Automatic annotation (TrEMBL):
Name under which the protein is recorded: Phosphate ABC transporter ATP-binding protein PstB
Keyword Nucleotide-binding: yes
One Pfam family matching this protein: ABC_tran
Residues in ABC transporter domain copies: 6-247
Gene: pstB
GO molecular function: ATP binding
Glycoprotein as UniProt keyword: no
Keywords: ATP-binding, Nucleotide-binding, Phosphate transport, Transport
InterPro entries reported in the protein's UniProt record: AAA+_ATPase, ABC_transporter-like_ATP-bd, ABC_transporter-like_CS, P-loop_NTPase, PstB-like
Length: 252
């Protein structure tokens, strides 16, 4: 039986009085890539942000339903939210490195939790940059500003920063939409190489990308989950007409 890393049941999200997500139930199998797709405004990012409680950072948001990470309620009273966001890390659409060196960007979250050992920090930086497939490009200039890198390189440094926290799950919100096809392909290749060790959830507008890299695809529409299944099934034989219409470019 497939082991799930994250499970969700009847997740609803409202911004103020307006309900944007109407009760989504979806499981995220361990060591698989799940793609969330759907037209603009259907609730993909809203749902993704629930998975590591990033919505808590926004004003006037109400989340209900159940979200469990390794069988623990992530909205439970004893949860350490900072630790949770390290275990379930997030990479955003725009690469957003801090105005520090590449080295300090990667090790930033570890510094925040008290890492001062130079040798340990060196090891974590190298391992994370290697996993993010950017070590060879930056190893001779780790003290250069991360902001001096190209967009694609910055995105891989941001991924390395998440990996430095030794997460279990990596959430990515349209991580390649600001990148050219070559930089996007590098990120896709990196994600495929990471899935043996991590559970990955990616929001994407790029249908080819979803079909290339994901194991499971979920289609959302107007705040509802229309269907979720193995990616091949969704793309070849979707159950719902709305999914088929979306895949055929009839809306979105
Ligand atoms: N911070 C917010 N405050 C108020 N409403 C929001 C906020 N974030 C999202 N919404 C609303 O929630 C709905 C879902 O938005 P969301 O960004 O989750 O969709 P999406 O599918 O990720 O869209 P896109 O593909 O354009 O990024 C939209 O109606 C949006 O206006």
């Amino acid at each position: 039986m497939t082991e799930n890393s994250l499970t969700t049941k009847d997740v609803k999200v409202s911004y103020g009085q307006h309900e944007s997500l109407h009760g989504v139930t979806l499981d995220f199998p361990k060591n698989q890539i799940t793609a969330l797709m759907g037209p603009s405004g259907c609730g993909k990012s809203t749902f993704l942000r629930c998975l590591n409680r990033s919505n808590d950072l926004l004003p006037d948001v109400t989340v209900s339903g159940e979200i469990e990470f390794e069988q623990q309620d992530i909205y439970g009273p004893k949860v350490n939210v900072v630790a949770l966001r390290t275990q379930i890390g997030m990479v955003y659409q725009q690469p957003t490195p801090f105005p520090f060196s590449i080295y300090e960007n990667v090790i930033f979250s570890q510094r925040m939790i008290g890492l001062h050992d130079r040798q340990k920090a060196d090891e974590i930086v190298e391992r994370s940059l290697r996993q993010a497939a950017i070590w060879d490009e930056v190893k001779d200039r780790l003290q250069r500003s991360a902001q001096s890198l190209s967009g694609g390189q910055q995105q891989r440094v941001c991924l390395a920063s998440v990996l430095a926290g030794a997460p279990e799950v990596i959430l990515l919100d349209e991580p390649t939409s600001a990148l050219d096809p070559i930089a996007s392909a590098k990120i896709e290749g990196t994600l495929l190489s990471l899935k043996d060790s991590y559970t990955i959830v990616i929001v994407t507008h790029n249908l080819q990308q979803a079909s290339r890299i994901s194991d499971q695809t979920a289609f959302l529409l107007n705040g509802d989950l229309v269907e979720a299944d193995a990616t091949k099934t969704i793309f070849m034989t979707p159950r719902e007409q709305a999914t088929s219409d979306y895949l055929n470019g009839k809306f979105g």
